[in-house]
Write a structure and sequence with these properties.
The complex is a heterodimer of chains A (about 550) and B (about 240). With about 550 residues, chain A is of the alpha/beta class. Chain A has 18 helices and 21 strands. In chain A, helix 4 packs across helix 6. Helix content of chain B is about 35%, strand content about 20%. Chain B has one domain: Rossmann fold (3-Layer(aba) Sandwich), CATH 3.40.50.970. Chain B has 10 helices and 11 strands. By secondary structure, chain B is α/β, with parallel strands linked by helices. In chain B, strand 7, helix 8 and strand 8 form a beta-alpha-beta unit. The chains are: A alpha/beta (about 550), B alpha/beta (about 240). Chains A and B meet through strand 9, helix 9, helix 10 and strand 15 of A and strand 1, strand 2, helix 4, helix 6 and helix 10 of B.
Chain lengths: ~550, ~240
């Protein structure tokens, strides 16, 4: 069973918070939830909405039609009423009684004024009404979110929940009770949790949507020192400096900030300084549509930085993977002394998923060597990785953007240039083997036709597979190094293949062709800032192949 | 490493001064050699990376300051000195000077200011004395306006002053700027102008030039004490 709730209203009115509270409470009851957040570039005003999808089975995407609608203002009602399912109900923040009996008017604003609290407190009335629609007790619901309020505010919140619970009457959805508590987390928050687990000490980042949520989560943890420097260029160079000095650090940005970081990304490769770049894409090109999503940065992430060097680009597909892949990113960057991109996008970074920090396949660390008197910062080795020391341990430690010998001293002779290029590229072979053990790609479902995708589209595709018994899904998570054998095997078995991406030209398809020679001609592409929904995928595939 | 600066290049004086100051501080047990890190820009100034026998990071054009800041934040026990040219401090990456002055990481920035981008064969920078009558950029008031806690200027013509100021800058707790005027023997050989300086004797002067006498001012323009960036970051967690 699945039910969808839309919450709409002006920016600054608590749309996002209300949706998160509903998801948090229902997840606490053990229902599976997914929250999609749709907002423009406003601080106050405009129209934002969130969609909470609630299901008795795991759910990873939102629906286009709604069973319940919380309209915090009239424009929200007008904008979304067409998408209300037959028999659906609307809770409208208004004093006026509505002629349509499916629309229940409650003055949440009036409540807030009477209680002398900010308007968003009134939203809790609607949360109470939603709980009642699910046949749930508001008191227990309050417990799930009680930690977020002061004792004084809690009194008002409880009163609002009770009031809301009473106004919603009639039958409830009849969800079967579940008792297993589930967590919720955005992709950003999940990645931040992995950073803490990995032992992160510093984050250097310049604010940018949709990466800011990741930085905020680190800052709020109280365990990571977060510094906001003058620009993205300073952020990445400070990160490299901090890692060189022996700390564990991260930087985070979106495509535009990454463009500014490109020169230093190449520096990380040449100086062989472990770099983890958390890259949450938004819709480009240029400023594009900053609060909406896209998968248009894939080739950029694979090519960022001048010159040739090995790198890792890993793209998680949901919050759980955001956690596990971030753990792997730290492990690989520090073990192999090279730059690693965690490539995500707004849909994954800012949507709420049910989340569980599953045991990691790797153990991240700083991978520091024991100090020796005779030390070479760039010593040749079997796998191309030189033992890493940091300043202060005794031996002289060097890092350099210039081509260098084993000591890190500047060279220009052809023999050393060749040897050093070879040394850096040696890592690639070992990386490939390492990544093969980390499920670099995975097939979901048993259908003979294969959907191929990466990143945040995973959620909608998995939800769509329930309606598409003839289809399975190949999710490619490591894009560099590319899992050639594994993808070839999956593609060869398929009767029909179709590429699905949130971009205009099918970037993964182009990479797949470059890496395997296989061309995927059939493409399902969407690039208007909005994610695919499961129904949309199912509909489009059925139309196409029937 | 053999020195590849032009014969007689005054960069050798900066190199000598850094070696001497590090030596003095190590001998006096103020710092341990293994805790010194230099961060360099590229170009002629960057070559100093190969000539000093200490921990070193050869960075990117204009980015020595953020790299040095990151190193100091990552391990506050280290003594971090950035060496860059005027091109890499007052042109590319100028914003880092402004922000670091304000935020006060405990790093020292040594600017070898010869008015040219020498290694690309002598294109003028903003501090070149004679570009089509355009005014010369003066980093002193900018550093002061950026609230840098230690602002100074010296030339390579007065070794004693240069050495004592560099030492004071390195031992200063907070962001220190040492702007060092020197001629470029190949592309901007204006030693006559640089040699004729006026010593700053009080901290009220807000300009690095005496415009009336057409003289370069040298000395310490400001030295104040305030909390460093790395101290503040440590308090936050």
């Amino acid at each position: 069973m699945k039910r969808s709730i839309l919450i709409g209203g002006e920016a600054g009115r608590g749309v996002d918070r209300t949706a998160a509270f509903i998801a948090e409470i229902l997840s606490d009851y053990g229902y599976f939830c997914f929250v999609y957040r749709d907002y423009g570039s406003f601080i106050k005003g405009g129209h934002n909405f969130s969609v909470v999808t609630v299901s008795s089975d795991p759910v990873f995407s939102h629906e286009d039609e709604f069973d319940l609608m919380i309209a915090l203002d009239k424009p929200a009602l007008e904008k979304h009423i067409e998408s209300l399912k037959p028999g659906g109900k609307v809770f409208l923040n208004s004093e006026e009684r509505q002629t349509d009996q499916n629309i229940i008017s409650v003055s949440a604003d009036g409540f807030a004024i009477k209680k002398k609290v900010s308007r968003s407190f009134g939203n809790n009335i609607f949360i109470g009404a939603v709980l009642s629609s699910f046949g749930l007790d508001w008191r227990r619901g309050f417990k799930a979110i009680s930690g977020k309020f002061s004792a004084c505010d809690a009194v008002v919140v409880k009163e609002a929940l009770r009031f809301g619970h009473e106004i919603q009457q009639g039958e409830n959805f009849g969800f079967k009770p579940r008792s297993k508590h589930l967590e919720i987390s955005t992709g950003n928050q999940a990645a931040a949790k992995a950073c803490l687990k990995a032992g992160l000490e510093f984050c250097f980042a310049y604010p940018i949507t949709p990466a800011t949520g990741f930085v905020d989560a680190l800052s709020q943890s109280g365990k990571v020192a977060v510094h906001q420097p003058e620009d993205e260029i300073a952020a990445i160079n400070q990160t490299l400096g901090a890692v060189f000095s022996g700390a564990m650090a991260v930087t985070a940005t979106s495509g535009e900030g990454a463009a500014l970081m490109a020169e230093s990304f190449s520096l990380a490769a040449m100086a062989e300084i472990p770099l983890v770049l958390y890259w949450a894409s938004r819709l480009g090109p240029s400023t594009g549509v900053p609060t909406y999503s896209g998968q248009g940065d894939l080739k950029f992430a694979l090519n960022i930085g001048h010159g040739e060097f090995p790198r890792v680009v890993v793209a998680p597909g949901d919050a759980n993977e955001s956690y596990s892949r971030t753990m792997e990113a730290f492990y690989l960057a520090y073990k192999y002394r090279l730059p690693v991109v965690i490539l995500t996008d707004k849909n994954l970074a800012e949507s709420y998923y049910n989340f569980e920090a599953l045991p990691s396949l790797v153990r991240p660390g700083k991978f520091l060597a024991k100090p020796k008197a005779e030390y070479k910062s760039y010593a040749f080795s079997e796998n191309g990785v030189s033992p890493r020391l940091v300043p202060g341990q005794g031996p002289i430690v060097r890092a350099t953007s210039y081509e260098h010998d084993e000591f890190g001293l500047t060279v220009e002779d052809p023999e050393t240039i060749e040897a050093m290029n070879e040394k850096r590229w040696k890592k690639a072979k070992f990386l490939e083997k390492e990544i093969a053990k980390l499920n670099p790609c995975r097939v979901y479902g048993k259908g003979k036709n294969l959907i191929i995708g990466w990143g945040s589209t995973k959620g909608a595709v998995l939800d769509a597979l329930r309606q598409l018994p003839d289809y399975s899904f190949l999710q490619i998570s490591y894009v560099a190094p590319f899992p050639v054998k594994e993808t070839e095997k999956a593609i060869r078995k398929a009767k029909r293949t179709i590429l699905l991406e949130n971009n205009s030209t099918g970037l993964l398809g182009r990479i797949l062709k470059e890496e395997t020679g296989i061309e995927i001609k059939d493409k399902l592409l969407k690039n208007n800032g909005r994610p695919f929904t499961a129904d949309e995928i199912a509909r489009l595939l059925k139309n196409r192949h029937e | 490493m053999p020195i590849t600066w032009c014969p007689g290049c005054p960069n050798n004086i900066v190199l000598y001064v850094l070696k001497s100051v590090f030596g003095e501080l190590i001998d006096a047990k103020k710092i341990r050699k293994q805790d010194i890190v230099i961060v360099t820009d590229i170009g002629c100034a960057g070559k100093i990376y190969d000539y000093l026998d200490v921990n070193a990071f050869y960075g990117l054009h204009g980015r020595a300051i953020p790299i040095a800041t990151g190193i100091k934040i990552g391990n506050p026990k280290l003594t971090v000195v950035a060496v860059a040219g005027d091109g890499g401090t007052y042109s590319e990456g100028l914003n880092h000077l402004v922000s670091s002055g304000r935020l006060n990481p405990d790093i020292t920035v040594i600017v070898i200011n010869n008015g040219v981008l020498a290694l690309t064969k002598g294109q003028p920078t903003s501090t070149h004395p004679s570009i089509k009558g355009e005014p010369i950029f003066d980093p002193v008031p900018l550093a002061l306006a950026s609230e840098a806690s230690f602002v100074s200027r010296e030339t390579t013509f007065d070794l004693r002053d240069l050495q004592s100021t560099v030492k004071a800058a390195i031992t200063h707790k907070g962001f220190s700027l040492v702007d060092i005027f020197e001629p470029c023997l190949s592309y901007n050989n204006d030693g006559e102008r640089i040699r004729d300086t006026e010593r700053v004797c009080d901290d009220s002067l807000q300009s690095g030039f005496d415009k009336r006498l057409r003289k370069i001012r040298t000395g310490v323009f400001r030295k104040i004490s305030r909390p460093t960036l790395e101290q503040k970051l440590k308090k936050k967690i």
